[in-house]
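Entry 14. Structure prediction run on the chain below.
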Amino acid sequence: MRFGYREICLDHETGPRHPESADRLEAIRRRLSRLHGIEYETGDSVGVERLERVHDPEYVAAVESFCAEGGGTWDADTLGTESTWEAARASAGLAVWAAAAALDGRDGRDTPFSIGRPPGHHAVFDDAMGFCFFNNAAVAADAALERARVDRVAVFDWDVHHGNGTQDITYDDPDVHYSSVHERGLYPGTGEVGETGGEGPERTNLNVPLPGGCGDAEYLAAVDDAVVPSVERFDPDLLIVSAGFDAHEHDPISRMRLSTEGYGVLTDRMRTLAGETGAALAFVLEGGYGLDALAESVVMVHEVFDGREPVEPDGDPSERARAVIEEVRDAHDL
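Output returned:
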C-alpha cells in the first residue's frame, strides 16, 4: 500500500494517559518499518474553504481561535493545543490525498491508506467530539464530488464506535452512502437501524449496531448480508473505508472480539466490493487504542493488498447478531 503520513500529526497533544495519542502513529510506523517496500506520501493540508464545505464556518473559526489561544479542553474527551489546528488540517488533507490517489488509479499494492490524526468520524457539522475536530472522511468525499471526479461516494466505517459525525454530515446527501458496523450502546450512543437517511436520499444510511462480544463471524455476516448489497445497489465511484481498529479483541475500550485476521477478511471484502462496483478504494485511519493490536491490524490490511489470503472465520454468527442483521435487511429492503 501507499501510506499517507505527516510528522505534524504527532504534534497534536492530548496529555498523559489519553488513549488518542501520538503513540498510535508511532506504533504503526515502527511495525511498518519491519516490512520491505513501504512508501509514504505527504499530501497537502486542507484550507479553510475546504473545511467550510463540510463544517459550519463559525465552528471552523472557533477551532482556529481555540488553538491560537493555546487550546485546552474542548469537551471531556477532546483536547488540543496550539499545534492541533495544523495537525487537524493535515489529517484531513491526508484523507483528501488518499481519495485523490485512488481516483488517479492507485490500486492493488498501491492502494492508498492515510494514517493521520486527530481522527475524524465523530466530528459533526458544527462541533468537535470523541477525539475528533474535522471529519476527514467527509472532507475527502466532498472534495471528490466537488471536483467532479465522481458522482457517488460510499463511506464504510468499521470503527467500533458509530461515526455519528459522518452520518450527521452526509445524512441528507443523495450522493453519499454511509454504512457503519459498530457496537450498540457504545459512545456516542447513535447509529440505530431506523436511521436510514434524510428526506432526499433513499436508504443511503445503513447502520448495523451489533451487540457487545461479537467477533469475526458476526462482522463478516454484517458485511456480506447488509453492507455489501446496500453499497452495490448504490453503485459508488469511490469507496472510502473509515478504518478504526478498536473492535479488536485486544483493544482496551470496547467489548468486541474481532481478530487481526478478521480485519484481513474485512479488507478483502472491501477490495472485492470495489472491484465489482468499479469504485476506487481508499482507507482513512480512525480509532484503535491498543497499540500492538492497532499496528498489527494496519499491517494486516497492507498484507492483504500484498497478496496474503486471509483466513475466513469458523462458525456461525450468534442469534443476537443475526437478528440485528435481519432487521437491517428489512429496513433497507435487501
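The longest helix spans residues 84-103.
Filed with the rest of this week's runs.
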